[in-house]
Amino acid sequence: MIIRINMRTKLVKQEKLPDKYQLLGGRGLTSRMLLDEIDPTCAPLGANNKLVIAPGLLGGTAAPCSGRLSVGAKSPLTGGIKESNGGGTAGGKLAKIGVKAIVIEDQPIEENFCILIVSSAGVRILPAVGLEGKGNYETANILQKKYGAAVSVISIGPAGERGYSLASVAITDMEGHPSRHCGRGGMGAVMGSKKIKAIVVDNNEAPAILYQNEKLFKEISKEWAQNVIPLKKGLTEYGTANLVNLVNSLGALPTRNYSYGSFTDAEQISGEYMKQRIEERGGKPSHACHPGCVIRCSNIYNDSKGNYLTSGLEYETIALLGSNCGISDLDFIAQLDNFCDDFGIDTMELGITLGVIMESGWAPFGDIDKMVELIGELKKDTLLGKLMGQGAVITGKVLGVQRVAAVKGQGISGYDPRGLQATGVTYATTPMGGDHTAGNCLPGRTGYRPETKDKDFLSKPEGMVELAKDMQVMTAVYDICGLCFFLGPSEDDMLRIAKLINAKSGVNLTAQDVIGFAKQLIKDEVEFNEKAGLSQSSNGLPEFFSSEKLGPYNYLFNISKEKMIQFYKKDC
Amino acid sequence: MIIRINMRTKLVKQEKLPDKYQLLGGRGLTSRMLLDEIDPTCAPLGANNKLVIAPGLLGGTAAPCSGRLSVGAKSPLTGGIKESNGGGTAGGKLAKIGVKAIVIEDQPIEENFCILIVSSAGVRILPAVGLEGKGNYETANILQKKYGAAVSVISIGPAGERGYSLASVAITDMEGHPSRHCGRGGMGAVMGSKKIKAIVVDNNEAPAILYQNEKLFKEISKEWAQNVIPLKKGLTEYGTANLVNLVNSLGALPTRNYSYGSFTDAEQISGEYMKQRIEERGGKPSHACHPGCVIRCSNIYNDSKGNYLTSGLEYETIALLGSNCGISDLDFIAQLDNFCDDFGIDTMELGITLGVIMESGWAPFGDIDKMVELIGELKKDTLLGKLMGQGAVITGKVLGVQRVAAVKGQGISGYDPRGLQATGVTYATTPMGGDHTAGNCLPGRTGYRPETKDKDFLSKPEGMVELAKDMQVMTAVYDICGLCFFLGPSEDDMLRIAKLINAKSGVNLTAQDVIGFAKQLIKDEVEFNEKAGLSQSSNGLPEFFSSEKLGPYNYLFNISKEKMIQFYKKDC
Asked: Which residues form the Aldehyde ferredoxin oxidoreductase N-terminal domain (chains A, B) (predicted)?
């Protein structure tokens, strides 16, 4: 069913899922519903935007890593369509309750925040008494005490309440920590504009997921899991931070606001170093972010006293709040990660924004005291805090910084496109803005094309456009299903996914069919953006990536703008 | 000739005007050269943008009001193509020297500013010794002392040096005051990014303008002037401020950040009141902003001691720094105008930005002390000053204000589109961003269509799309020629203009031909914007104009977004 909630009238409707949406889920459903239902030119934080929350097509099932939850809306950061997905426990629970999507419409006139309680019994809208201004950790804690430790909480921190464009939506993990974030594109600000502080998901008494062929579904799932586990050893052992040394060696690790591609102190922020530290302090170097995850690339990072500090300290956070700000103190980066999770902030956008502020001369790179001051400005909602809250592009404009690594208003990620050209193409072309999660092309993760294992391959322009397109399409398949992208990507997966959908729903899809769904999804997103005024001509990277050589290997991004503009012109 | 100056290499080239540009001038030339020469996706303040300065096709001639100077570049405010034109003496002088355009390319690596000396002898590039950080008044004064009182000065103030997106380009008037501004779109910031503080134009020893048929040219000019003068009595007598009472009576005077359409104290900021005050203090209620102006809508406004305070106190300045900020003290508005001229700021963008800041709760509307404080922030380049320097849209985003009257990143003007629907269509559709100067549709100035004299006519949606298109096209004709729009608009003018071009250049144009030039110009600008990523889908007004009724007449802007998007889709 679709749950439709009007936040002005407080009317809740449960609608049968229309036939046309039957084989959609996750990003497939959020983007399609936004295209179908909202005016693409609407004000992102106004009454006419909608927030759509959807588990994947395989959400709640026994498929490995299938619990991701998509949150979509028109983005206050990019002005275009946005979907951001995260792990945690809410996606699976919503699927089990039978919720295909929660559509949040309009906005209240009054200023007070609400919470939503979603369960098999329906939806309740209650005042968010005592929660306003609270961080995600305290919010989750209060709600778990009230509604039971087993509930999932989807929430926003002060950043989302204030409408910061870098505000995330938090989802509680298996320990109840609000550590999983739909980080990108300011989805937290849209949730805040609807005056929703939190959504409690209670799947107590929910019926079991129905399969047309449960046995077959579980067989395929098991084979897949067994196949994946040995392939992902690096992720399991070191988390995504296993990329620090790799990307540093490629000369593509954002360093001091993307002015260099290698960080002298990379070793101190590497996955290997982090693992050792986590183990010494009794944390968990390998941790599943949601039930059914077989890769367990998350972690629990304790402080020096052995107390919980943060969870899911990831590569992008380390690269952008670390090397990109000249910071090599992993404990400090973990503290920042905890702050971001609690305050409800995208660590990537913050890291790029801080790098821009440092470049403006406000603070030297690597100055921890000054970074603490800057975080204080955010907390206190000072003018500088408000400015930071609008992300890197606006901060750069106001402070007069020209080198701002962003596309369509959104900061890119922890991969300098000069060293990783295909990821650069994804930044430049995805309807999601400068977002690696739409199709990241790394040596270890483009295994379906053996030649990409050659490290140098990805620093050369040849074949990158095609690679980026393939990766964006395959990524969209995982996103539709609520599957973690780290399962693949592989062409074998496309077939597995088709078979799983068939076994669950009694349809008869081929691998090509699911790829077709993904292509249609991207086409829908491109159409939305075109209608929003964000045409394909807005594809492209900032000029400096093509004019400033990136040391130490002196790479330039050398794929023509014309190719970026033409990228999605004809088809996907 | 075209003078091409590379600010990195300091190379100056004089090029023969290519045949294809022979019948272009002013905005026609700036926009066409930008489309031909720059990458529309370039960074506005980067090396790849160009600043093009061009007198009109009839610049320097005996045609009435023909001395306007166009300044064009990709705009840091809108991200699209921009042309802004102003009066003063430089346009005519450049034309007399034989300069069709000055094209300023690239940017220096060093930080120091330069000045350019343009004369019949050529171009010199000199260090701007002692001028950096100076206001336009002092800058002009120093340069006039050095190069002679008769030179014209085109300059930027501190705002342009700092790269503020609301920075204007100043042009000295007939008294040598830098009071005429190419205000819109941040052209001053682009000039600043090229590290040019001022351009001195010295037409000493310049040859006389050549006419193919001088006698005929002068006859047509004389007839035109004689025809215009009686039609424009209101402008001559009260300046553009004659609109205050009119627009107030239409219920379309922006008041307290566009929350109301009528201002209780309108009388105190009216043209009638201003005229009386100017006369009492020995100023000039009617003043020509450039040689050959027969309308003389400018003025010289003295302070209470009878000393010069500002010149060209105009309607838009009064509406946006006055009623839109809740201010009814005309002396204070005149002081602000002087500050803006000196600091090099667009009064309109500043007025809208201040209205947004007031709405955020920073200061009550009408609080002069607080406004003085805000101006102090700008002067001191504090963080709030820098934010204001980026204009209303970014200020609104950072301060969380939803009601921001802007289109394509640029604040609109002193005409609420709910009461003046056709002007609203122009804001929504012109490639220039929210800019009334691209085609303002007022009762007194749409005389070529008698029905528009009916005041109510312009508050209704019928016929507004067609009216706005006609006005945008006709306005472009005046802009190409360097003519003041206040001459018309009329269909008769199109014929007069064709005849004048014929008499000057020995061609054989019809009225339809010059209209064709204007249509092609707008088409070029739309093409530039499309390539810059600013598609026709970005046409449209902010949502609140269609959802919040404007008192006292409860007007809504009720022309569909679809019509705005389709406006220039097929042809001009």
From this structure: 1-205
